[in-house]
Amino acid sequence: MTKTFLSPPIARILGIAGAVLAIVAAMLPWTTFVLNKGAWPDKATLQFFDAPFALTGFRWELFLVGIVALVCSVVKVPAQRRVLRGLGFGVAAIGLVNFLFITAEGGGLGAVTAADGASAFGSVAALVAGGLLILGTFGQPLEEIPRWKTNLPTPVEYLGLLVSFAVLLYVVSLTLTAGGQGGAANPYSGPMFLSFLGFGGGLMAAAAGLGILRWISKLSEKHRAFSIIVLLLCAFLLPFTNAGTEYWMTVAANIGVYAATAIGLNIVVGLAGLLDLGYVAFLGIGAFVAANLSGAAASSLGIHLPFYLVVIISAAIAGIFGAVVGSPTLRVRGDYLAIVTLAFGEIFQIAARNNIGGLTGGSNSIPNIPPLQWFDGTAYNESITLFGTPLPSGVLYYFLIVVLIAAVMAVFANLKNSRMGRAWIAIREDEDAARAMGIKTGKAKILAFLCGAVLAGIAGAVFAHKTSTVGYESFLFMESVTLLAAVILGGMGSIPGAVLGASLLFVLPEKLRAFSDYRLLIFGLALILIMRFRPQGLIPDRHRRAELAGEDAEGHTLAETPGDEPEQPRPQEVPAR
Description:
- By secondary structure, the chain is mostly helical.
- The protein has two domains: 8-146 and 178-210, no CATH class; 244-504, ABC transporter involved in vitamin B12 uptake, BtuC, CATH 1.10.3470.
- Helix content is 61%, strand content 2%.
- It has 20 helices and four strands.
- The strands form two sheets. The protein has a two-stranded antiparallel ribbon with strand order 1-2. A two-stranded antiparallel sheet has the order 3-4.
- It comes from Kibdelosporangium persicum.
Protein backbone atom coordinates (compact mmCIF):
# COMPACT_ATOMS: atom_id res chain seq x y z
CA MET A 1 0.00 0.00 0.00
CA THR A 2 1.38 3.42 -1.03
CA LYS A 3 1.81 5.84 1.85
CA THR A 4 -0.31 8.98 1.69
CA PHE A 5 1.01 12.37 2.75
CA LEU A 6 -1.62 14.59 1.08
CA SER A 7 -5.28 14.56 1.94
CA PRO A 8 -7.67 14.13 -1.03
CA PRO A 9 -8.99 17.73 -0.84
CA ILE A 10 -5.45 19.17 -0.96
CA ALA A 11 -4.50 16.81 -3.80
CA ARG A 12 -7.59 17.93 -5.70
CA ILE A 13 -6.71 21.60 -5.21
CA LEU A 14 -3.15 20.97 -6.44
CA GLY A 15 -4.48 19.21 -9.53
CA ILE A 16 -6.85 22.06 -10.37
CA ALA A 17 -4.13 24.66 -9.73
CA GLY A 18 -1.67 22.77 -11.96
CA ALA A 19 -4.20 22.50 -14.79
CA VAL A 20 -5.12 26.20 -14.61
CA LEU A 21 -1.44 27.19 -14.49
CA ALA A 22 -0.73 25.05 -17.59
CA ILE A 23 -3.48 26.92 -19.46
CA VAL A 24 -2.06 30.26 -18.29
CA ALA A 25 1.48 29.20 -19.28
CA ALA A 26 0.29 28.61 -22.85
CA MET A 27 -0.80 32.25 -23.00
CA LEU A 28 2.42 33.71 -21.57
CA PRO A 29 5.58 34.74 -23.48
CA TRP A 30 8.43 32.22 -23.22
CA THR A 31 11.51 34.28 -24.14
CA THR A 32 12.34 37.87 -23.20
CA PHE A 33 14.40 38.62 -26.34
CA VAL A 34 15.22 37.23 -29.77
CA LEU A 35 17.83 34.48 -29.60
CA ASN A 36 20.93 34.10 -31.77
CA LYS A 37 19.20 31.86 -34.32
CA GLY A 38 16.03 33.93 -34.46
CA ALA A 39 12.76 34.33 -32.58
CA TRP A 40 11.43 31.30 -30.69
CA PRO A 41 8.64 29.59 -32.69
CA ASP A 42 4.88 30.10 -32.36
CA LYS A 43 5.25 33.79 -31.45
CA ALA A 44 6.51 32.88 -28.00
CA THR A 45 9.13 35.68 -27.99
CA LEU A 46 8.05 38.78 -26.07
CA GLN A 47 8.73 41.19 -28.97
CA PHE A 48 6.29 39.27 -31.19
CA PHE A 49 3.78 38.40 -28.46
CA ASP A 50 0.90 40.45 -29.80
CA ALA A 51 -1.90 37.84 -29.66
CA PRO A 52 -1.85 35.71 -26.47
CA PHE A 53 -4.98 33.81 -27.50
CA ALA A 54 -3.75 32.99 -31.02
CA LEU A 55 -2.23 29.71 -29.95
CA THR A 56 -0.20 27.55 -32.34
CA GLY A 57 2.42 24.82 -32.12
CA PHE A 58 3.66 23.81 -28.69
CA ARG A 59 1.60 26.53 -26.97
CA TRP A 60 -1.58 25.07 -28.47
CA GLU A 61 -0.49 21.58 -27.39
CA LEU A 62 0.14 22.79 -23.84
CA PHE A 63 -3.26 24.51 -23.81
CA LEU A 64 -5.01 21.28 -24.87
CA VAL A 65 -3.26 19.22 -22.19
CA GLY A 66 -4.18 21.86 -19.61
CA ILE A 67 -7.85 21.78 -20.63
CA VAL A 68 -7.95 17.98 -20.42
CA ALA A 69 -6.24 18.08 -17.02
CA LEU A 70 -8.71 20.68 -15.74
CA VAL A 71 -11.68 18.58 -16.82
CA CYS A 72 -10.21 15.46 -15.23
CA SER A 73 -9.47 17.39 -12.02
CA VAL A 74 -12.99 18.78 -11.67
CA VAL A 75 -15.03 15.86 -13.01
CA LYS A 76 -14.67 12.43 -11.46
CA VAL A 77 -13.21 10.12 -14.11
CA PRO A 78 -12.02 6.50 -13.81
CA ALA A 79 -8.41 6.17 -12.62
CA GLN A 80 -8.31 9.93 -12.06
CA ARG A 81 -4.90 10.02 -10.40
CA ARG A 82 -3.32 7.89 -13.12
CA VAL A 83 -4.69 10.22 -15.79
CA LEU A 84 -3.53 13.38 -14.01
CA ARG A 85 -0.07 11.97 -13.40
CA GLY A 86 0.36 11.19 -17.11
CA LEU A 87 -0.86 14.65 -18.10
CA GLY A 88 1.44 16.19 -15.51
CA PHE A 89 4.49 14.50 -16.99
CA GLY A 90 3.42 15.75 -20.42
CA VAL A 91 3.13 19.36 -19.20
CA ALA A 92 6.45 19.11 -17.36
CA ALA A 93 8.15 17.70 -20.47
CA ILE A 94 6.98 20.61 -22.63
CA GLY A 95 8.15 23.11 -20.05
CA LEU A 96 11.50 21.39 -19.46
CA VAL A 97 12.36 21.02 -23.17
CA ASN A 98 11.71 24.69 -23.89
CA PHE A 99 13.39 25.86 -20.68
CA LEU A 100 16.59 23.94 -21.41
CA PHE A 101 16.90 24.79 -25.07
CA ILE A 102 16.03 28.46 -24.75
CA THR A 103 18.70 28.68 -22.07
CA ALA A 104 21.24 26.70 -24.11
CA GLU A 105 20.69 28.67 -27.34
CA GLY A 106 22.47 31.70 -25.90
CA GLY A 107 19.64 33.20 -23.93
CA GLY A 108 20.71 32.12 -20.45
CA LEU A 109 18.37 32.24 -17.48
CA GLY A 110 17.42 35.80 -18.33
CA ALA A 111 15.67 34.64 -21.49
CA VAL A 112 13.29 32.39 -19.55
CA THR A 113 12.75 34.66 -16.55
CA ALA A 114 13.48 38.41 -16.71
CA ALA A 115 16.04 40.60 -18.43
CA ASP A 116 16.32 44.40 -18.90
CA GLY A 117 12.94 45.01 -17.35
CA ALA A 118 11.17 42.44 -19.57
CA SER A 119 9.82 39.14 -18.26
CA ALA A 120 8.76 35.86 -19.85
CA PHE A 121 7.85 33.03 -17.51
CA GLY A 122 6.04 30.63 -19.85
CA SER A 123 8.45 27.71 -19.49
CA VAL A 124 8.82 28.22 -15.73
CA ALA A 125 5.04 28.29 -15.32
CA ALA A 126 4.72 25.08 -17.36
CA LEU A 127 7.34 23.36 -15.18
CA VAL A 128 5.52 24.42 -11.99
CA ALA A 129 2.18 23.34 -13.48
CA GLY A 130 3.52 19.89 -14.33
CA GLY A 131 4.98 19.57 -10.84
CA LEU A 132 1.67 20.47 -9.20
CA LEU A 133 -0.24 17.94 -11.32
CA ILE A 134 2.23 15.19 -10.46
CA LEU A 135 2.35 16.15 -6.78
CA GLY A 136 -1.44 16.08 -6.56
CA THR A 137 -1.50 12.39 -7.52
CA PHE A 138 0.51 11.35 -4.48
CA GLY A 139 -2.38 11.93 -2.09
CA GLN A 140 -3.69 8.37 -2.40
CA PRO A 141 -2.58 5.12 -4.06
CA LEU A 142 -3.06 4.90 -7.82
CA GLU A 143 -6.25 3.22 -8.92
CA GLU A 144 -6.47 0.05 -10.95
CA ILE A 145 -6.72 0.58 -14.67
CA PRO A 146 -10.43 0.19 -15.54
CA ARG A 147 -11.63 -2.64 -17.74
CA TRP A 148 -14.09 -1.63 -20.43
CA LYS A 149 -16.56 -4.05 -21.92
CA THR A 150 -15.61 -5.67 -25.19
CA ASN A 151 -18.83 -7.62 -25.74
CA LEU A 152 -20.50 -4.82 -27.65
CA PRO A 153 -22.43 -5.27 -30.89
CA THR A 154 -20.08 -6.13 -33.74
CA PRO A 155 -20.82 -2.96 -35.79
CA VAL A 156 -20.04 -0.82 -32.74
CA GLU A 157 -16.75 -2.65 -32.18
CA TYR A 158 -15.83 -2.25 -35.85
CA LEU A 159 -16.62 1.46 -35.63
CA GLY A 160 -14.44 1.76 -32.52
CA LEU A 161 -11.52 0.12 -34.31
CA LEU A 162 -11.98 2.32 -37.38
CA VAL A 163 -11.93 5.48 -35.27
CA SER A 164 -8.93 4.25 -33.25
CA PHE A 165 -6.84 3.43 -36.31
CA ALA A 166 -7.83 6.70 -38.00
CA VAL A 167 -6.55 8.53 -34.92
CA LEU A 168 -3.36 6.43 -35.10
CA LEU A 169 -2.83 7.47 -38.73
CA TYR A 170 -3.35 11.11 -37.78
CA VAL A 171 -0.89 10.82 -34.88
CA VAL A 172 1.76 9.21 -37.12
CA SER A 173 1.35 12.03 -39.63
CA LEU A 174 1.65 14.66 -36.90
CA THR A 175 4.72 12.96 -35.44
CA LEU A 176 6.55 12.88 -38.76
CA THR A 177 5.78 16.52 -39.55
CA ALA A 178 6.18 17.92 -36.01
CA GLY A 179 8.82 20.65 -36.05
CA GLY A 180 9.03 20.67 -39.84
CA GLN A 181 12.00 19.40 -41.81
CA GLY A 182 14.59 21.42 -39.90
CA GLY A 183 17.37 23.30 -41.63
CA ALA A 184 17.78 27.04 -42.01
CA ALA A 185 14.04 27.58 -42.33
CA ASN A 186 13.40 26.23 -38.85
CA PRO A 187 16.51 26.05 -36.64
CA TYR A 188 14.33 25.06 -33.67
CA SER A 189 12.72 22.00 -35.26
CA GLY A 190 14.36 19.67 -32.72
CA PRO A 191 12.92 21.29 -29.56
CA MET A 192 9.52 21.61 -31.25
CA PHE A 193 9.57 17.89 -32.04
CA LEU A 194 10.50 17.03 -28.45
CA SER A 195 7.70 19.30 -27.21
CA PHE A 196 5.28 17.40 -29.42
CA LEU A 197 6.56 14.12 -27.96
CA GLY A 198 5.83 15.48 -24.48
CA PHE A 199 2.33 16.45 -25.60
CA GLY A 200 1.67 13.09 -27.26
CA GLY A 201 3.22 11.15 -24.40
CA GLY A 202 1.02 12.92 -21.85
CA LEU A 203 -2.16 12.15 -23.77
CA MET A 204 -1.06 8.54 -24.38
CA ALA A 205 -0.37 8.09 -20.66
CA ALA A 206 -3.82 9.49 -19.88
CA ALA A 207 -5.45 7.15 -22.42
CA ALA A 208 -3.55 4.22 -20.92
CA GLY A 209 -4.70 5.21 -17.42
CA LEU A 210 -8.30 5.34 -18.58
CA GLY A 211 -7.95 1.84 -20.03
CA ILE A 212 -8.62 3.03 -23.58
CA LEU A 213 -5.42 1.54 -25.00
CA ARG A 214 -6.12 -1.80 -23.35
CA TRP A 215 -9.68 -1.74 -24.72
CA ILE A 216 -8.41 -1.09 -28.25
CA SER A 217 -5.85 -3.88 -27.87
CA LYS A 218 -8.54 -6.34 -26.78
CA LEU A 219 -10.83 -5.35 -29.65
CA SER A 220 -8.06 -5.63 -32.22
CA GLU A 221 -7.14 -9.07 -30.88
CA LYS A 222 -10.80 -10.11 -30.96
CA HIS A 223 -11.22 -8.93 -34.57
CA ARG A 224 -7.70 -9.68 -35.75
CA ALA A 225 -8.45 -10.06 -39.46
CA PHE A 226 -10.47 -6.82 -39.57
CA SER A 227 -7.74 -4.97 -37.65
CA ILE A 228 -5.02 -6.14 -40.03
CA ILE A 229 -7.03 -4.99 -43.06
CA VAL A 230 -7.69 -1.58 -41.51
CA LEU A 231 -4.02 -1.16 -40.51
CA LEU A 232 -2.93 -1.97 -44.06
CA LEU A 233 -5.42 0.57 -45.36
CA CYS A 234 -4.03 3.18 -42.94
CA ALA A 235 -0.49 2.43 -44.15
CA PHE A 236 -1.58 2.95 -47.76
CA LEU A 237 -3.28 6.22 -46.80
CA LEU A 238 -0.16 7.75 -45.20
CA PRO A 239 1.03 9.36 -48.50
CA PHE A 240 -2.29 11.23 -48.66
CA THR A 241 -1.57 13.00 -45.34
CA ASN A 242 0.82 15.88 -44.60
CA ALA A 243 3.61 13.29 -44.31
CA GLY A 244 3.21 12.41 -47.99
CA THR A 245 6.37 14.20 -49.11
CA GLU A 246 9.28 12.81 -51.10
CA TYR A 247 11.52 13.06 -48.04
CA TRP A 248 9.25 11.08 -45.73
CA MET A 249 8.34 8.54 -48.41
CA THR A 250 12.06 7.83 -48.79
CA VAL A 251 12.53 7.56 -45.03
CA ALA A 252 9.40 5.39 -44.66
CA ALA A 253 10.60 3.05 -47.43
CA ASN A 254 13.99 2.64 -45.74
CA ILE A 255 12.24 2.03 -42.42
CA GLY A 256 10.12 -0.63 -44.10
CA VAL A 257 13.16 -2.47 -45.46
CA TYR A 258 14.82 -2.56 -42.06
CA ALA A 259 11.53 -3.43 -40.34
CA ALA A 260 11.14 -6.48 -42.61
CA THR A 261 14.74 -7.42 -41.86
CA ALA A 262 14.17 -6.95 -38.12
CA ILE A 263 11.19 -9.30 -38.27
CA GLY A 264 13.49 -11.92 -39.80
CA LEU A 265 16.03 -11.32 -37.04
CA ASN A 266 13.20 -11.72 -34.56
CA ILE A 267 12.98 -15.37 -35.58
CA VAL A 268 16.62 -15.94 -34.66
CA VAL A 269 16.83 -13.75 -31.55
CA GLY A 270 13.25 -13.31 -30.40
CA LEU A 271 11.96 -16.84 -30.87
CA ALA A 272 15.01 -19.13 -30.84
CA GLY A 273 17.09 -16.95 -28.49
CA LEU A 274 20.22 -17.12 -30.69
CA LEU A 275 22.31 -13.95 -30.50
CA ASP A 276 23.24 -12.98 -34.07
CA LEU A 277 25.65 -10.03 -34.44
CA GLY A 278 26.20 -10.42 -38.19
CA TYR A 279 22.63 -10.61 -39.41
CA VAL A 280 22.93 -7.59 -41.71
CA ALA A 281 25.18 -9.74 -43.93
CA PHE A 282 22.09 -11.64 -45.12
CA LEU A 283 20.50 -8.34 -46.12
CA GLY A 284 23.68 -7.54 -48.02
CA ILE A 285 23.75 -10.93 -49.73
CA GLY A 286 20.20 -10.41 -50.98
CA ALA A 287 21.05 -6.89 -52.15
CA PHE A 288 24.23 -7.89 -54.02
CA VAL A 289 22.51 -10.87 -55.67
CA ALA A 290 19.70 -8.60 -56.85
CA ALA A 291 22.19 -6.00 -58.10
CA ASN A 292 24.01 -8.59 -60.21
CA LEU A 293 20.87 -10.14 -61.65
CA SER A 294 18.92 -6.94 -62.41
CA GLY A 295 20.92 -5.61 -65.34
CA ALA A 296 23.11 -3.05 -63.53
CA ALA A 297 25.71 -1.62 -65.93
CA ALA A 298 28.53 -2.13 -63.41
CA SER A 299 27.66 -5.79 -62.83
CA SER A 300 30.19 -8.30 -64.17
CA LEU A 301 27.49 -10.89 -64.92
CA GLY A 302 25.43 -8.84 -67.37
CA ILE A 303 22.19 -10.66 -66.50
CA HIS A 304 18.77 -8.99 -66.38
CA LEU A 305 16.03 -11.16 -64.86
CA PRO A 306 12.46 -10.23 -63.91
CA PHE A 307 12.07 -8.89 -60.40
CA TYR A 308 10.08 -11.84 -59.06
CA LEU A 309 12.83 -14.25 -60.15
CA VAL A 310 15.47 -11.98 -58.61
CA VAL A 311 13.61 -12.02 -55.28
CA ILE A 312 13.36 -15.82 -55.28
CA ILE A 313 17.04 -16.29 -56.13
CA SER A 314 18.14 -13.69 -53.57
CA ALA A 315 16.07 -15.38 -50.86
CA ALA A 316 17.41 -18.84 -51.78
CA ILE A 317 21.07 -17.81 -51.75
CA ALA A 318 20.68 -15.86 -48.50
CA GLY A 319 18.92 -18.91 -46.99
CA ILE A 320 21.81 -21.18 -48.00
CA PHE A 321 24.29 -18.88 -46.28
CA GLY A 322 21.96 -18.78 -43.29
CA ALA A 323 22.04 -22.57 -43.02
CA VAL A 324 25.84 -22.52 -43.34
CA VAL A 325 26.17 -19.93 -40.57
CA GLY A 326 23.66 -21.82 -38.45
CA SER A 327 25.67 -25.05 -38.61
CA PRO A 328 28.16 -23.97 -35.90
CA THR A 329 25.23 -23.45 -33.55
CA LEU A 330 25.14 -27.23 -33.06
CA ARG A 331 28.18 -26.97 -30.82
CA VAL A 332 28.31 -23.38 -29.53
CA ARG A 333 25.87 -21.17 -27.71
CA GLY A 334 25.72 -17.88 -25.84
CA ASP A 335 28.74 -15.61 -26.16
CA TYR A 336 30.57 -18.07 -28.40
CA LEU A 337 27.69 -18.05 -30.88
CA ALA A 338 27.74 -14.25 -30.87
CA ILE A 339 31.45 -14.34 -31.78
CA VAL A 340 30.80 -16.77 -34.64
CA THR A 341 28.05 -14.63 -36.14
CA LEU A 342 30.12 -11.49 -35.61
CA ALA A 343 32.96 -13.12 -37.52
CA PHE A 344 30.61 -13.99 -40.38
CA GLY A 345 29.47 -10.39 -40.62
CA GLU A 346 33.06 -9.13 -40.72
CA ILE A 347 34.04 -11.74 -43.33
CA PHE A 348 31.15 -10.62 -45.53
CA GLN A 349 32.09 -6.96 -45.17
CA ILE A 350 35.77 -7.59 -46.01
CA ALA A 351 34.84 -9.78 -48.98
CA ALA A 352 32.48 -7.10 -50.29
CA ARG A 353 35.10 -4.39 -49.83
CA ASN A 354 37.76 -6.39 -51.71
CA ASN A 355 35.33 -7.19 -54.55
CA ILE A 356 35.98 -10.94 -54.34
CA GLY A 357 34.78 -12.58 -57.55
CA GLY A 358 33.96 -9.17 -59.01
CA LEU A 359 30.42 -9.42 -57.59
CA THR A 360 30.33 -6.46 -55.17
CA GLY A 361 32.11 -3.61 -56.95
CA GLY A 362 34.44 -3.03 -54.02
CA SER A 363 34.81 0.61 -53.07
CA ASN A 364 33.00 1.64 -56.28
CA SER A 365 29.85 -0.29 -55.26
CA ILE A 366 27.34 -1.37 -57.90
CA PRO A 367 25.52 1.77 -59.12
CA ASN A 368 22.75 2.38 -61.63
CA ILE A 369 20.54 -0.55 -60.69
CA PRO A 370 17.46 -0.16 -62.90
CA PRO A 371 14.33 0.91 -60.98
CA LEU A 372 11.33 -1.35 -60.86
CA GLN A 373 8.54 -0.62 -63.31
CA TRP A 374 4.77 -0.83 -62.98
CA PHE A 375 2.73 -2.76 -65.53
CA ASP A 376 2.16 0.37 -67.65
CA GLY A 377 5.88 1.18 -67.70
CA THR A 378 5.84 3.75 -64.89
CA ALA A 379 9.05 3.60 -62.89
CA TYR A 380 8.71 3.17 -59.16
CA ASN A 381 10.87 6.25 -58.52
CA GLU A 382 8.52 8.54 -60.44
CA SER A 383 5.69 10.63 -59.03
CA ILE A 384 2.15 9.48 -59.80
CA THR A 385 -1.41 10.76 -59.48
CA LEU A 386 -3.83 8.53 -57.62
CA PHE A 387 -7.54 9.32 -57.10
CA GLY A 388 -6.87 12.82 -58.37
CA THR A 389 -4.14 13.43 -55.77
CA PRO A 390 -0.53 13.94 -56.93
CA LEU A 391 1.82 11.75 -54.92
CA PRO A 392 5.58 12.27 -54.56
CA SER A 393 8.25 10.24 -56.31
CA GLY A 394 9.11 6.97 -54.65
CA VAL A 395 5.59 6.39 -53.34
CA LEU A 396 5.33 3.18 -55.39
CA TYR A 397 8.37 1.81 -53.53
CA TYR A 398 6.59 2.71 -50.30
CA PHE A 399 3.49 0.78 -51.38
CA LEU A 400 5.64 -2.20 -52.37
CA ILE A 401 7.41 -2.23 -49.01
CA VAL A 402 4.08 -2.05 -47.15
CA VAL A 403 3.03 -5.20 -49.00
CA LEU A 404 6.44 -6.75 -48.21
CA ILE A 405 6.07 -6.04 -44.48
CA ALA A 406 2.55 -7.48 -44.48
CA ALA A 407 3.81 -10.67 -46.16
CA VAL A 408 6.78 -10.99 -43.79
CA MET A 409 4.52 -10.46 -40.77
CA ALA A 410 2.17 -13.18 -42.03
CA VAL A 411 5.11 -15.59 -42.43
CA PHE A 412 6.42 -14.76 -38.96
CA ALA A 413 2.99 -15.16 -37.34
CA ASN A 414 2.48 -18.60 -38.90
CA LEU A 415 5.98 -19.71 -37.94
CA LYS A 416 5.54 -18.49 -34.37
CA ASN A 417 2.28 -20.39 -33.91
CA SER A 418 3.54 -23.55 -35.63
CA ARG A 419 5.08 -26.60 -34.04
CA MET A 420 8.54 -25.35 -35.04
CA GLY A 421 7.82 -21.95 -33.49
CA ARG A 422 6.96 -23.56 -30.17
CA ALA A 423 10.18 -25.58 -30.43
CA TRP A 424 12.17 -22.36 -30.94
CA ILE A 425 10.56 -20.79 -27.88
CA ALA A 426 11.39 -23.90 -25.84
CA ILE A 427 15.03 -23.67 -26.99
CA ARG A 428 15.12 -20.02 -26.03
CA GLU A 429 13.87 -20.74 -22.52
CA ASP A 430 16.05 -23.80 -21.83
CA GLU A 431 17.87 -25.66 -24.58
CA ASP A 432 18.79 -28.64 -22.40
CA ALA A 433 15.20 -29.09 -21.24
CA ALA A 434 13.99 -28.78 -24.83
CA ARG A 435 16.40 -31.53 -25.93
CA ALA A 436 15.27 -33.70 -23.03
CA MET A 437 11.67 -33.29 -24.24
CA GLY A 438 12.59 -34.72 -27.62
CA ILE A 439 13.11 -31.54 -29.65
CA LYS A 440 15.86 -31.82 -32.25
CA THR A 441 17.56 -28.62 -31.21
CA GLY A 442 20.27 -28.70 -33.89
CA LYS A 443 17.79 -28.93 -36.75
CA ALA A 444 15.55 -26.30 -35.16
CA LYS A 445 18.39 -23.79 -34.77
CA ILE A 446 19.58 -24.24 -38.34
CA LEU A 447 16.00 -23.73 -39.55
CA ALA A 448 15.79 -20.53 -37.49
CA PHE A 449 18.89 -19.12 -39.19
CA LEU A 450 17.63 -20.28 -42.59
CA CYS A 451 14.17 -18.71 -42.23
CA GLY A 452 15.58 -15.46 -40.88
CA ALA A 453 18.12 -15.26 -43.71
CA VAL A 454 15.43 -15.89 -46.34
CA LEU A 455 13.38 -12.95 -45.08
CA ALA A 456 16.47 -10.75 -45.01
CA GLY A 457 17.35 -11.80 -48.56
CA ILE A 458 13.91 -10.72 -49.81
CA ALA A 459 14.27 -7.36 -48.06
CA GLY A 460 17.75 -6.98 -49.55
CA ALA A 461 16.44 -7.46 -53.10
CA VAL A 462 13.90 -4.67 -52.57
CA PHE A 463 16.58 -2.52 -50.91
CA ALA A 464 18.87 -2.81 -53.97
CA HIS A 465 16.20 -1.52 -56.35
CA LYS A 466 15.05 1.17 -53.93
CA THR A 467 18.50 2.71 -53.40
CA SER A 468 19.71 1.97 -56.99
CA THR A 469 23.24 1.59 -55.56
CA VAL A 470 24.58 -1.22 -53.40
CA GLY A 471 27.90 -0.94 -51.55
CA TYR A 472 29.51 -2.59 -48.57
CA GLU A 473 29.11 0.64 -46.52
CA SER A 474 25.43 -0.17 -46.07
CA PHE A 475 26.13 -3.46 -44.28
CA LEU A 476 28.60 -2.65 -41.53
CA PHE A 477 28.57 -4.03 -37.99
CA MET A 478 26.64 -1.03 -36.67
CA GLU A 479 23.72 -1.96 -38.92
CA SER A 480 23.53 -5.37 -37.23
CA VAL A 481 23.57 -3.65 -33.84
CA THR A 482 20.76 -1.34 -34.96
CA LEU A 483 18.64 -4.27 -36.11
CA LEU A 484 19.27 -6.10 -32.84
CA ALA A 485 18.36 -2.96 -30.89
CA ALA A 486 15.12 -2.67 -32.90
CA VAL A 487 14.14 -6.22 -31.95
CA ILE A 488 14.92 -5.75 -28.25
CA LEU A 489 13.42 -2.27 -28.07
CA GLY A 490 10.17 -3.27 -29.75
CA GLY A 491 9.83 -6.55 -27.88
CA MET A 492 11.52 -9.87 -28.60
CA GLY A 493 9.16 -12.29 -30.29
CA SER A 494 6.61 -9.56 -31.02
CA ILE A 495 5.54 -8.91 -34.62
CA PRO A 496 4.42 -5.26 -34.26
CA GLY A 497 7.25 -4.69 -31.80
CA ALA A 498 9.93 -5.21 -34.46
CA VAL A 499 8.19 -2.74 -36.79
CA LEU A 500 7.81 -0.15 -34.03
CA GLY A 501 11.41 -0.63 -32.89
CA ALA A 502 12.78 -0.16 -36.40
CA SER A 503 10.58 2.89 -36.90
CA LEU A 504 11.82 4.56 -33.72
CA LEU A 505 15.47 3.81 -34.46
CA PHE A 506 15.22 5.51 -37.84
CA VAL A 507 12.68 8.28 -37.21
CA LEU A 508 14.21 9.65 -34.00
CA PRO A 509 17.71 10.29 -35.48
CA GLU A 510 16.09 11.98 -38.48
CA LYS A 511 13.95 14.23 -36.31
CA LEU A 512 16.87 15.05 -34.01
CA ARG A 513 19.23 16.23 -36.76
CA ALA A 514 18.70 19.80 -35.56
CA PHE A 515 20.80 18.98 -32.49
CA SER A 516 23.87 18.23 -34.62
CA ASP A 517 26.54 16.70 -32.35
CA TYR A 518 24.12 16.13 -29.47
CA ARG A 519 21.47 14.17 -31.36
CA LEU A 520 23.12 10.78 -30.81
CA LEU A 521 23.55 11.59 -27.11
CA ILE A 522 19.84 12.47 -26.81
CA PHE A 523 18.94 9.41 -28.85
CA GLY A 524 21.02 7.15 -26.61
CA LEU A 525 19.52 8.62 -23.46
CA ALA A 526 16.03 8.01 -24.86
CA LEU A 527 16.89 4.35 -25.48
CA ILE A 528 18.29 3.98 -21.96
CA LEU A 529 15.12 5.43 -20.44
CA ILE A 530 12.89 3.18 -22.55
CA MET A 531 14.85 0.06 -21.60
CA ARG A 532 14.90 1.13 -17.95
CA PHE A 533 11.15 1.49 -17.66
CA ARG A 534 10.11 -1.05 -20.35
CA PRO A 535 12.67 -3.89 -20.18
CA GLN A 536 10.15 -6.22 -21.83
CA GLY A 537 9.96 -3.94 -24.89
CA LEU A 538 7.39 -1.46 -26.12
CA ILE A 539 5.02 -4.12 -27.48
CA PRO A 540 6.08 -7.38 -25.79
CA ASP A 541 4.59 -10.79 -26.36
CA ARG A 542 3.08 -12.60 -23.42
CA HIS A 543 6.22 -14.65 -22.66
CA ARG A 544 8.51 -11.61 -22.36
CA ARG A 545 5.88 -9.68 -20.41
CA ALA A 546 5.57 -12.50 -17.89
CA GLU A 547 9.35 -12.99 -17.65
CA LEU A 548 10.58 -9.38 -17.38
CA ALA A 549 7.54 -7.45 -16.09
CA GLY A 550 5.74 -10.13 -14.09
CA GLU A 551 2.47 -9.26 -15.80
CA ASP A 552 -0.18 -11.17 -17.67
CA ALA A 553 -1.44 -10.26 -21.14
CA GLU A 554 -3.71 -7.57 -19.67
CA GLY A 555 -1.00 -5.87 -17.61
CA HIS A 556 -1.91 -7.26 -14.17
CA THR A 557 0.71 -8.80 -11.91
CA LEU A 558 0.95 -12.56 -12.02
CA ALA A 559 1.00 -12.82 -8.23
CA GLU A 560 -2.31 -11.08 -7.76
CA THR A 561 -4.79 -10.52 -10.58
CA PRO A 562 -7.66 -8.15 -9.68
CA GLY A 563 -11.08 -9.68 -9.69
CA ASP A 564 -9.90 -13.20 -9.01
CA GLU A 565 -11.24 -14.72 -5.82
CA PRO A 566 -9.13 -17.32 -4.05
CA GLU A 567 -10.42 -20.79 -4.72
CA GLN A 568 -12.03 -22.39 -1.70
CA PRO A 569 -11.05 -25.97 -0.96
CA ARG A 570 -13.79 -28.43 -1.72
CA PRO A 571 -14.98 -30.68 1.12
CA GLN A 572 -13.98 -34.26 0.58
CA GLU A 573 -16.82 -36.62 -0.07
CA VAL A 574 -16.81 -39.85 1.84
CA PRO A 575 -17.96 -42.68 -0.39
CA ALA A 576 -20.90 -44.61 0.93
CA ARG A 577 -20.28 -48.19 1.90
